[in-house]
Design brief:
two-stranded antiparallel sheet, binds manganese (II) ion, binds adenosine-5'-diphosphate, 47% helix, globular
């Protein structure tokens, strides 16, 4: 509810989107600009072993969502976090004050993921995920529409603009209402 989020002195922001849309780059720049804490869920899962092993087919850890949520509960309650993950439907809704969905044009995303070494099904699945705006849909289904914002992330200019816009929003946190 709104009452709970109002008790945080600093906001929690979720940065989500298809792999390659720029979540980690954007979150790092945003953390530097705002002094909020960047939490890369993929790294956290790996470092703290919050997974149920390795998925050979998808070439990624099988995330244990309950372990991740338990691990983060206290820190999220405290506020001041930027959470970076390519999924958003398993976090408690009350954790976030803003949900940013990054979006990238297909051909640009294709190049970024190819450069990252993605091929075959892993590459096409992610491109399809972006074409069908799956993360935007997931975000809208999981959070109040007024806190969900889609942002274009095709160019470095886009990223800088996004960081500026979100930083301004963070600065006004708590004084607006
Ligand atoms: P994600 O965390 O969503 O998988 P990354 O932040 O790791 O994405 O970005 C993937 C690659 O694309 C990196 O090489 C990064 O430098 C580049 N990149 C990300 N966002 C942008 C952008 N808005 N403009 C240009 N390059 C970008
Ligand atoms: Mn990332």
């Amino acid at each position: 509810s709104g009452g709970e989020s109002a008790m945080r002195s600093k906001p929690n922001i979720l940065v989500t989107g298809t792999p390659g849309t720029g979540k980690t780059s954007t979150s790092e720049a945003l953390a530097e600009a705002t002094h909020l804490r960047h939490i890369n869920i993929g790294d956290l899962v790996k470092d703290k072993k919050l997974h149920d092993g390795w998925d050979d087919q998808l070439q990624c850890y099988i995330i244990n969502e309950d372990l991740v949520c338990d691990e983060l509960e206290d820190i999220m309650e405290e506020g001041g976090n930027i959470v970076d993950y390519h999924g958003c439907d398993f976090f408690p809704e009350r954790w976030f004050d803003r949900v940013v969905v990054l979006q990238t044009e297909n051909s640009i995303l294709y190049d970024r993921l190819s450069k990252r070494g993605y091929t075959g099904a892993k590459l096409t699945n992610n491109i399809e995920c972006e074409i069908f705006q799956e993360l935007l849909e997931e975000a809208k289904e999981s959070y109040r529409e007024e806190i969900v914002v889609a942002m274009k992330s095709d160019t470095v200019d886009d990223m800088n603009r996004n960081v500026t816009v979100i930083t301004e929003w963070v600065s006004s946190w708590g004084s607006a209402t």
